């Protein structure tokens, strides 16, 4: 974990305010490619999902307003508060790449980010099956699946 979820919750609230409610917080359990570099080892999928559940609970708790404390399996929070909350909270889109992650998205998120389908016409590829399962799980809990936003262009506007 690079940042405590209280820091993420505060940053997301601030971004929602300054972006006129155009901000979506996308969050997931992580991947070794990016996370092993912090030198704390890399937990199992189950361990990452347990940490993610704690993090999502903290973010949602802080977004309720007022002073909040939390004692989870991996994370704690003591008398924390976000002083400036947006009028409309950002969508909390949880990555739902598998059955357990889809359940976390359905329970804790206000949006859901299912995996992208494989670039094939088949609906039986592992990616397509996972996407369908995650989408159904999120919808069953009233969560709206969202595609991740496309990356902003970084080159000149004329395409050179």
Task: Name some characteristics of this structure.
alpha/beta; 5 helices; TIM Barrel
- Write the element-wise H/E pattern from the N-terminal end onward: HEHHEEEHEHE
**Count of runs of 4 or more consecutive helical residues:** 5
> End-to-end span in angstroms?
38 Å
Strand content: 5-15%
CATH architecture: Alpha-Beta Barrel
Give the low-pLDDT segments.
117-122, 148-156
Report on this model:
By secondary structure, this protein is α/β, with parallel strands linked by helices. The chain has one domain: TIM Barrel. 38% of the residues lie in helices and 14% in strands. The chain has 5 helices and 6 strands; from the N terminus they run αβααβββαβαβ. The strands form 2 sheets. It has a 4-stranded parallel beta sheet with strand order 1-4-5-6. The longest helix is centred in the middle third of the chain and has 18 residues, at 45-62. The chain is globular, with a radius of gyration of 17 Å. The protein starts with a helix and ends in a 15-residue tail after the last strand.
Blueprint (SSEs and pairs):
Elements: H1 5-18, E1 24-27, H2 32-35, H3 45-62, E2 68-71, E3 76-80, E4 91-95, H4 99-108, E5 111-113, H5 126-140, E6 144-145
Parallel strand pairs: 1-4, 4-5, 5-6
Antiparallel strand pairs: 2-3
């Amino acid at each position: 974990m690079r940042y405590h979820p209280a820091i993420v919750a505060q940053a997301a609230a601030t971004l929602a305010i300054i972006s006129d409610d155009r901000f979506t917080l996308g969050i997931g359990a992580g991947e070794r490619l990016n996370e092993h570099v912090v030198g704390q080892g890399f937990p199992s999928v189950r361990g990452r999902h347990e940490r993610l559940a704690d993090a999502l609970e903290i973010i949602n708790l802080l977004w309720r307003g007022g002073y909040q404390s939390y004692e989870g399996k991996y994370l704690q929070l003591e008398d924390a508060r976000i002083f400036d909350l947006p009028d409309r909270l950002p969508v909390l889109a949880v990555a739902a790449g598998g059955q357990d992650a889809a359940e976390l998205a359905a329970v804790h998120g206000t949006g859901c980010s299912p995996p992208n389908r494989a670039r094939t016409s088949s609906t039986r590829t592992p990616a397509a099956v996972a996407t369908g399962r995650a989408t159904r799980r999120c919808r069953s809990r009233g969560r709206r699946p969202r595609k991740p936003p496309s990356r902003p262009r970084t080159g000149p506007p004329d395409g050179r």
